[in-house]
C-alpha cells in the first residue's frame, strides 16, 4: 500500500467556499479512504484556502492523531 499502517493522514478538501465543491463525504469516497481500514487514522477536513476556514481544525486533527499514535507506540514498547 501507499501508506504505512497507522500513519495519520490528513486530506484538506479545499474550495469549500465554492458552491460546486465536492462535499467531504464524496471526497472520502472518491479517494477510497475506507479501504485504508481502521488501523490508519485519518481526517478529511473541508477548508477554504481563500479565507483559511477549516485549515486550523485540520492541522489540529493531524496533531491529535500524531500524539495518539506516539502514546500507542510508547505503550506497545513498555509491554515488551
TrEMBL record:
Keywords linked to the UniProt accession: GTP-binding, Nucleotide-binding
GTP-binding listed as a keyword: yes
Residues involved in GTP binding: 14-17
Superkingdom assignment: Eukaryota
A Gene Ontology molecular function term of the record: GTP binding
Keyword Acetylation annotated: no
Protein name: Uncharacterized protein
